[in-house]
Amino acid sequence: MSSTTETLISRLQPDAQGHSVLLNHRTQSVTAIDGWKSALFGTPFLAAGIFIGWIATNGSSVDKHTPNWIIAAFGVMFFLSGLFLIIHGVLGVARKAAWRREAAQYPGEPWRYDFHWHREGISFSAFDDMLKRLLSALVWTAFLVPFAWIGANEKGAWPFLAAAVIFGLIGLIFWYRWAAMLFDLLRYGNSFLVYDSFPYSRGGTLRARLRSPHHVSAIDELTLTLRCVQEKYVTSGSGQNRSTNVVCYELYGESSTFNRDQLTGLAGNDIPMEFRLPSDQPATTLAATPPTYWEIEAKGKARGADYEATFLVPVY
Predict the structure, then answer these.
(1) Strand ranges (DSSP E) for the chain?
(2) Whole-model pTM?
């Protein structure tokens, strides 16, 4: 199961209402499974990891065709996958219980319990974004190392090496995106979106201000997009090839653009934005699984490193 809309998702069609898929969009859902289902699903992986680790560290070396470190690597993969799913599921159950308590305490005020909002605004950490992409690239690369070793050292196992090379080339995309995020962080730093009111209401007006990032004068064109996103758990394939992914659909979108001259005039000041919020679109439900939410996406084109940041906005 995956929480990203990568290459395979590009083959997905719009949903039944005609909403388009947002490719490579940051998701709020960590995986396409939650609660006790996630914990139960992760238990066999955890057990398999422990068993494989025992074979690598305490089992007999007789009839082993690969080094213990290769066996241990597979054990670690299974163990960490299972542990992640179990922790994710237990935390999800705890969050749901807290959500129900707070919903009963503040009826009619979902912004109090749906998400941990700050009335003054919300930050976007380019550092966290870069770190997550780095971890993804490292995990992808580490996953391929045992297969590459088997393919290179075991007779007749060349398909393992070929697969590792092919998927390694695909993995270069992770490293490219990490490098782009690193340059983004070094040039522009973290970002902050200031709410002019809290919360925003459907049918009203969203006014906010983006605090000018470092080197804003280097941006040739900045596009600010208000978007309503609905995540869905989509299953594709059949039989043993079935997989479930978190897919983001754009329910509504509106953009405004600042050119270089306008940005130069705003250097050192907040960049204002104003959008009309339609009344016929859903409100924010970040506590739901899968969630629906509103966001402001900022994308700046520049020579060298482009600017990119995404901010959640409280629309209820």
Answers:
(1) 20-21, 121-124, 191-195, 205-210, 219-236, 243-259, 271-276, 292-302, 307-313
(2) 0.83
